[in-house]
Design brief:
alpha/beta; two-stranded parallel ribbon; 16% strand; globular; disordered N terminus
Amino acid sequence: DQTNKSSHHQHYCNIIRMKMYITLLCIAILLGNSYADLSLQLFSSVDANQTGARCLDGSPSGFYFQKSSSNPTQWVIHLEGGGYCLPGAVKPNVNKCSDRVRTSLGSSNYFSQTAPAIILPTWTQVYIPYCGGDLHAGTSNETSQGFYFAGHLIVAAIIDKLKEDYGLNNATQVILIGESAGALGLYSNAEYIKDQLPATTTIIGIPNAGWFMPLPPFNPAYQGIDTLPSIFKNIASFYAHPKCAAAYPNTPEQCILPNYSYPYISVPMFVVQSMFDSNALEAQLGALPPSSANSSSDLFAIQYSQAVNNSIASVLKPGDGAFVTSDYVHVLGFNNVALGYNLSTIFINYLVTRRPPTV
């Protein structure tokens, strides 16, 4: 008996060591320190006119791509973040579109020729630059107040191009990633992207810092998140997946915010979010930083954090994962820690041991 117990104990220890080795190996692959640059693939003017894949200034959009030689059927599709803009913005926390068109956030004339991979560099990589100023959700094929808001049309055109010419139709696994406005774009477009892929493709999303609660601002001079959907509606047309739009037939524009759209997203998600999102609290709602020791602002931040936590907890579905912290930051890095575990370890555990269902 003692011999059997010792054998079982040794076998158990070997399993633990193997799991630890696999986890450490996966983290090294996830965060590897040698990334291959992705190359810019710009749409032609003809393609942009046909698909509507235009930046704010009307220049053709595009994407960055790097095919993997070792894992060609495993894909990472990354949506860039970067706030939003409104024509003739007057609120102190809103970017003017006329300013953005002089940068890569509004014109492909300022795109760099390469972009780095962020995670899983041994996988096939796609990086979607954010030049629409519309949370990757606009569907306008004509100018609105002098600007194109065509973020969803850009995403749709890129997915079609990747299927036709780059092998996305053969993908076995796709991970969608986005931070901030890119995360909002991920929430808006995840179901659409899933619908364009083969039924055998496994797809998951990693939205980071995109859970903006629709609350009025702490500072009344600021543009609140609560009115953002209706303001966008008055400027241009925006994409809402049919399942979410059907749930809000009179106000489908609300689907650009995840607390409305998430219950209608079937794509498994690993939600990464700080309850005390510094960008949401300061840049979007006008709250003061904790160092100001303003009791009213501190209370507002606590109430906002509770709203974020309760909202996420109420809609997570079987197969989802979450990394929700109280760090006073915006985008969480893979080295951020919660309850003694960093994000990379928890995500790899989710990826390896809680495989999302095939869609």
